[in-house]
Design goal:
With 148 residues, the protein is mostly helical. The protein is 75% helix and 0% strand. It contains four helices and no strands. Helix 1 packs parallel to helix 3 (78-105).
């Protein structure tokens, strides 16, 4: 279990760093005149390269390792369900990054800087919320109509 947890934490750091880097990169590059627009290998933008070769693979490994950590230990508690809900929201924001990259590559820059910073802020809040839930491990509120 400790092995899965270690892999989960390491890949989570890389995933969160890369998903925070991409909107900032797009916002900065949108304001410039096509500098760094094309990657030298012809793969598209640098944002797409980071998204497809770093953020997405590390996201998959992080989610699998995190899931295995709790499946192997047979843990099902309230804070874990809250964390998984927040991780699901982060996955949705991760998918929104793909839309942002596509819009950037098609040079549809109307409001792109605004969307980039909104997504950056949403991802940041989600990451901080996940970190708070994991560190505080809140107990199940008594007002919930179900029990775990």
């Amino acid at each position: 279990m400790l092995w899965f947890l270690s892999v989960h934490i390491i890949t989570l750091f890389v995933w969160t760093a890369s998903v925070l880097y991409i909107p900032a990169l797009i916002a900065m590059e949108t304001q410039k005149q096509k500098e760094f627009m094309q990657h030298p290998t012809g793969m598209g933008s640098v944002a797409r390269l980071v998204f497809t070769h770093i953020a997405s693979p590390f996201a998959v490994v992080s989610i699998i390792a995190g899931t295995l950590t709790f499946v192997v230990a047979d843990i099902l508690i309230f804070w874990l369900l809250v964390k998984l809900t927040l991780v699901s929201l982060m996955v949705v924001f991760h998918a929104c990054l793909a839309l942002l990259i596509t819009r950037f590559e098609r040079e549809n820059t109307k409001n792109l800087v605004l969307y980039s910073w909104i997504l950056f802020t949403a991802l940041s809040v989600c990451i901080v919320a996940i970190l708070c839930v994991v560190l505080m491990k809140p107990a199940e509120p008594e007002m919930l109509p179900w029990t775990l």
